Amino acid sequence: MVCITEDMIKQLQTLMDEIAEPLQKTFQNMHQGFPTETLVRFLKARDGSVSKAQKMLVDCLNWRIDNEIDQILAKPIVPSDFYRGVRDTQLVGMSGYSREGLPVVAVGVGLSTYDKASIHYYIQSHIQMNEYRDRVILPAASKKFGRYIGTCIKVLDMTGLKLSALNQIKLLTAISTIDDLNYPEKTETYYIVNAPYIFSACWKVVRPLLQERTKKKIQVLSGSGKDELLKIMDYASLPHFCKREGSGSSKHSRNGTNDNCFSLDHGFHQQLYDYTKQQALASEAFAPSKEGSVHVTLPEPDPDDAKIAETIESEFQRIGEKNGICQTFHEIKINGD
């Protein structure tokens, strides 16, 4: 992994000082008081190349302006019943914090169906969670722990992966590319849990295609991963699908408690949704009866990333035809994230 030096940071800062005022404004909104740390993220994403990092960052800022990303948290998905459908089919949530203060983000890779709304709603929802993490969750964690916290931990639940998941390859490619280009180096470690038997065969195909820094971030845990995850977080912060004895996942709460971090009824999603409604009211943009998604420009994937996606799809279809099942690892095709 490339070591980011003070000289690299100073060079990039000098270049960024010269950008136009609109870009400066959205950069301030993005870095949330931590400009140097943000520059480091983009330098890491481009292996220490100052010129490439500067281009990546400027492209990101232009993307934010063109798609009004600074205002996206003031555009709730309405009505709430429709948003509940999005949440029930795009299984992402926050279950707590690690002992070091990093937010623990849970992702239901296998059981997400993305079949209750258009691609634009799912992308809007994903970006809103990214922005809420970066503008609210991470700054609050930094303040609480008295040090900069700019990354999270992701726990990926592989329960339920099947061939039909490949029908969502366009959406997953779009989400992955948005994260790669505009939210780089935001995840400290990816923990894969509840991996089915076929996972090892598929992983042999995927792993060589990933960048070295990405490989180092991924850990495949046995079963639900509970024992390993308890070394870095308290039981209360475990995603609900890790609390079960043995492997397996559940989309529903147990014992009448609301520990399902995917659900709209979970505290994290309630706070996020309330926040978007408050922001909308403050900007006089909220209209309860209005429906319609935010259309964000879908970026073209990097040629190398596109090749990876094609290889994964082709190989997993072959495995699926041979074994009657298929796994898709596009959710963890996380170069640059």
Structure description:
By secondary structure, this protein is an alpha/beta fold. It has 2 domains: 6-66, Helicase, Ruva Protein, domain 3 (Orthogonal Bundle); 73-277 and 302-332, CRAL-TRIO lipid binding domain (Phosphatidylinositol Transfer Protein Sec14p, 3-Layer(aba) Sandwich). It contains 12 helices and 5 strands. The chain has a 5-stranded mixed beta sheet with strand order 1-2-3-4-5. It comes from Capsicum annuum (Capsicum pepper). This is CRAL-TRIO domain-containing protein. Residues 79-239 form the CRAL-TRIO domain.
Key phrases:
8% strand; Helicase, Ruva Protein, domain 3; 12 helices; five-stranded mixed beta sheet; disordered C terminus; 2 domains; 337 residues; alpha/beta; single chain; Phosphatidylinositol Transfer Protein Sec14p; globular
Outline the secondary-structure elements.
Elements: H1 6-16, H2 21-31, H3 35-45, H4 50-66, H5 80-89, E1 92-97, E2 103-108, H6 119-145, E3 152-157, H7 169-182, E4 187-193, H8 199-206, H9 212-215, E5 218-220, H10 226-229, H11 267-282, H12 303-323
Helix pairs in contact: 1-3, 1-4, 2-4, 3-4
Domain CRAL-TRIO: 79-239
Protein name: CRAL-TRIO domain-containing protein
Pfam family, one: CRAL_TRIO_N
